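Second opinion, please. Pick holes in both lines of this record:
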Amino acid sequence: MSETKPMTAAGHRILDAAGDLFYSRGITAVGVDLIAEHSGVTKRTLYNQFGSKDQLVVAYLEERQQRWQLLVRETVAAAASPIEAVLAPLEAQRTWNQNNPRGCAFINALAELPDPSHPAHVVATKQKQWLIDLFRELATAAGCSAPDVLATQLLVLHEGALVTQQLSLDTLYASIELAGELVRAATSTES
């Protein structure tokens, strides 16, 4: 988290309530009054713990980022081959989506907070950069040709599956299948 001081029990309640509310209702639709009410604290406690709503949004996104990255790293580590490892972020999305029906909190934040200087926009952008860097790293380790191009393609498939999640089109499975074809094609050119 951005805060250097340890988070109190009230701080955890605030972050949990804010996370639920921001994700389910939207960042801009949720005010500090509602967060305080849902967490059972005063607004003063909220501000003492986080300083501002913007910093609370940052903490919310950073906490989600930590959980998402842990799941992805565990999925990469469990992959049976380097090619499966490249596909691991898409595979991790299957598990993640079960408890996250409103799509990607980072994409949602970028849509709600378009100012690139907003601290939450910065966190969301860094999350997407982390993902493309991971795809590039995994593609390189798997011996894929043109890992930069492949990483971009995989990011587009990943993000497209996230954005269309609410449409009940089952695009994640098609995206994973297409990603597998791209990865296999990129590794076969090396043979």
Notes: The chain has a mean pLDDT of 93. The first helix runs from residue 9 to 25. The radius of gyration is 18 Å.
